[in-house]
Amino acid sequence: MCYSNSSTSSNVQLAERYKKQVLNNLQAGPVFYAQGFTFPNWRIITADAEIQSMKWGLIPSWFKGVDSNEIASMTLNAKIETAHDKASFKHLIDSKRCIIPSTGFFEWKTIGKEKVPYFIYPNDDSVFSMAGIYDTWVHPSSGSIQNTFSMLTCTANPLMAEIHNTKKRMPVILSKDQEENWLQGNLNSEILELPFPDKFISAHQISKKIINNKQANVPEVLLPFENQVFVQGILF
Fold this sequence. Notes:
The chain has 236 residues and is an alpha+beta fold.
């Protein structure tokens, strides 16, 4: 599935891109590489006037347990085809929609016993606008409030099917003319089951050594890397 993301835009750039305001306490980028299972905070666009900060890994408002990470690890992604049927998502898909700004995301191509990492990014825009849903959870003991989100996914387009060649999934990416309609609830989610066209997407192989390092959140993680072992088996 889609568990690794990047957001290197500044707060000012995101505010200009989405016509939103920036709160004084909003965390700043850049995030070159973030892994979903670390439940990172992310800058999120909603129908509100300000850019929001939310944690990746949706905790439903009805969750009464103590270990919120347990459920969050299962809600990093939400399949758009089944979101209306799942308890964690069905009350949110039409009412609590958001955009997850992304400079690009990461996926692994399986070649034999090897996993080859790729960085996937937009051709002609500064960000991908990934469709998401969010919820607000109140900790049953401390009363602390957490806003969390899940990334919607769909069937892969041809480019992503070749890269993510086991699950064959990709994030739901919105075109610019879909963004506001998505946030306002005026866009039927079934339309987004069709994947974003691959002609608007680029990808290149990156260094496995860097991305597998504990300190992978560095600019070098985004750089092209040619592994001679796999030259004949990869895309480009």
